[in-house]
Design brief:
The chain is of the alpha+beta class. The protein contains nine helices and 18 strands.
């Protein structure tokens, strides 16, 4: 039993046995190593997929793909099925799914969708993943056959509530899931410790941590006269977060001021849009739970932008943990 959270920035997976991984949601074609492996395999993964119809493909996944000239990530609000499913299969393999032999068993899977697309896309996604199967090999390791038995498609944000502990016994709480490209918000009314979603004050916004990257790219071009390549965004962001200048053209480029300003402005923009969408409910909220990668990137600027906000435990894996608990409860007959 496992859960996979395919995000615009990273793909997270966890299994009931306790295995978990997080990899960049980037895929690239496999190219030959001109050094013949003399410097090792580097970071990231090489996935070999062999499908029942006889077709095969080899791809770089994660960090290795992000460093490639041909790396592809999710650019729009829709996630292409081939990319999404390849990330699911690779992540499933990395947390131990699959088997060998003539008739390997299936694994139960939970995934999620943003609230804005949940009702319209959940059935099609469930059907597609239920039919997905392949022999998967990662980094020349064991080849395992992976297919899925029970498939549960959960709403992002709402699922994370299942992983929370110590929810208020009564009142209103909000879950705000901040990713790279989208922010999901979910208002819950709690009575006797049981949370119930309020649909008219829940949804998705086309806003997220990409605004920080956009600001850094704008400042980088202003100071260098050159655009910031997409494949360099992660490295530049990591350096700036550590307070380090970025090397370009033999010079050191300081982006720290632009980064700090972007953190504040992005946090305020997210909070304004979410609180506006909540309407009158915003004044009656007991606590705002912040999940996703956003709280770790934006830090105190984000918590200060929301009233009564706290970063939920294990925020990056909050959805994946919630998906897994929902799946386990559904298969055991629990509510």
């Amino acid at each position: 039993m496992l859960a996979v959270d395919v995000g615009y920035s990273d793909t997270k997976a966890c299994s009931l046995s306790g295995h978990r991984i997080s990899i960049p949601s980037v895929i690239a074609p496999l190219t030959a190593d001109p050094l013949g492996g003399v410097l090792g395999n580097g970071v990231g993964y090489k996935a070999h997929i062999r499908r029942p119809n006889g077709t095969t493909e080899e791809k770089l996944i994660g960090e290795a793909a992000a460093a490639s000239f041909f790396g592809t990530s999710f650019l729009g609000k829709d996630k292409p099925a081939d990319m999404h499913d390849l990330l699911v299969m690779t992540a499933a393999h990395l947390v131990g799914a699959g088997g060998t032999g003539m008739m390997p068993g299936q694994v139960d899977l939970a995934v999620g969708l943003p609230l804005a697309y949940y009702k319209t896309q959940r059935d099609a996604l469930k059907v597609r993943l239920s039919a997905l199967s392949a022999w998967v090999q990662v980094n020349n390791g064991e080849e395992r056959y992976i297919s899925f038995g029970n498939v549960l498609v959960a709403p992002q944000g709402a699922a994370a509530v299942f992983a929370f502990e110590n929810l208020p016994k009564a009142g209103y709480v909000v879950v705000v899931d901040i990713g790279r490209g989208t922010t999901d918000y979910l208002l819950l009314s709690i009575a006797d410790g049981v949370p119930r979603p309020i649909a008219e004050a829940s949804g998705s916004l086309e806003i997220g941590c990409h605004l920080v990257l956009k600001a850094l790219a704008h400042e980088f071009q202003a100071k260098t006269g050159a655009p910031l390549p997409q494949r360099m965004e992660r490295q530049v962001l990591a350096q700036v977060r550590e307070g380090e200048p970025v090397s370009f053209g033999g010079k050191k480029i300081d982006l720290s001021d632009a980064f700090k300003k972007a953190m504040v402005e992005t946090s305020r923009a997210i909070s304004r849009q979410v609180l506006s969408a909540l309407g009158d409910f915003a004044n009656f909220v007991e606590v705002v739970y912040l999940i996703g990668g956003g709280p770790l990137l934006l830090g105190p600027e984000l918590t200060e932008a929301f009233p009564a906000a706290i970063v939920a435990p294990d925020p990056v894996f909050a959805n994946a943990n919630g998906y897994l608990k929902m799946l386990r409860n559904a298969l055991s007959g629990q509510p």
